[in-house]
Amino acid sequence: MNVQWKGVMPAVTTKFTKNDELDLNMFEVNIKAQLHAGVHGIVLGGTLGEASTLLDEEKRELTRFTVSLVKNKIPVLVNIAEQSTKQAIAAAQKAEADGAHGLMMLPPMRYKSGDLETMTYFKTVANSTSLPIMVYNNPVDYNVEVTLDMFEELLKCDNIQAVKESTRDISNVTRIKNRFGDRLKIMTGVDTLGLESLLMGADGWIAGLVCAFPQETVAIYELHKVGKIQEALEIYRWFLPLLELDINPKLVQNIKLAEVYTGIGTEHVRAPRLPLSGQERNHVIKIIERGLKNKPVLPDYKNL
């Protein structure tokens, strides 16, 4: 499948049972809700999520299950976040063998690589696989920035095709477009800059709260796409308090609690994470309940 780097692609949460095993039944419920809403791709194993807690075989099982579930309707991307080049190559090759259509890839984990090390890492992995790659550029959370000069070198690899732009600098979308045009596709990676990034020329949105609110997220994208900016803005303004749950150290717990309220998830997390409790939980519940109470009526965004 040729990955089209555009539209809404949820970085889906991993579903667990109360016995800390993969909950493929509830995972299927959520994926089907995403498909029904019209998302344009699925991203597995988000790094700020629970990917680091998964066993290797669990990651592969999730990949194979998702690929079989979507039936080539949309691409399935697997996140690569490893500590060594050797591990990253192995992960990329396993993802390809398991049927993934593309990769989302971070710089090396833990070790803060220099510019040359970072570029060599990406290029070496890219040359080991035929899968298209989206570079995840998030210096805020991972302390390594992939600069435009570095992308100039990385784009010598034909299969490095997109960036998940998470620098939090909205003007970086324009810088990328000015420098690379359509050669480097831009997927915004910050929920609270979703519509702003699209308006500045981003091609799509790797989203978080879409896991609980798929239709609302896709509606914003589709309305923006056809120039119905005011209608998109009205939904986005309603959505913002919920989107802010994603820019939080406990984003996984926040999103999973929201999924409970919308009927497409559970609160089960893998230790050391624990479900929200006390005042923190009550605060998030108030945001979710307020959002549901004031939920906008969506237009027929699939037929604009």
Automatic annotation (TrEMBL):
Keywords, alphabetical: Lyase
A GO molecular-function descriptor: N-acetylneuraminate lyase activity
Record InterPro entries: Aldolase_TIM, DapA-like
GO BP annotation list: N-acetylneuraminate catabolic process
Keyword check for Transferase: no
Binding-site residues, pyruvate: I206
SUPFAM superfamilies: Aldolase
Protein's UniProt name: Dihydrodipicolinate synthase family protein
The species this protein was found in: Hanstruepera neustonica
Lineage: Bacteria, Pseudomonadati, Bacteroidota, Flavobacteriia, Flavobacteriales
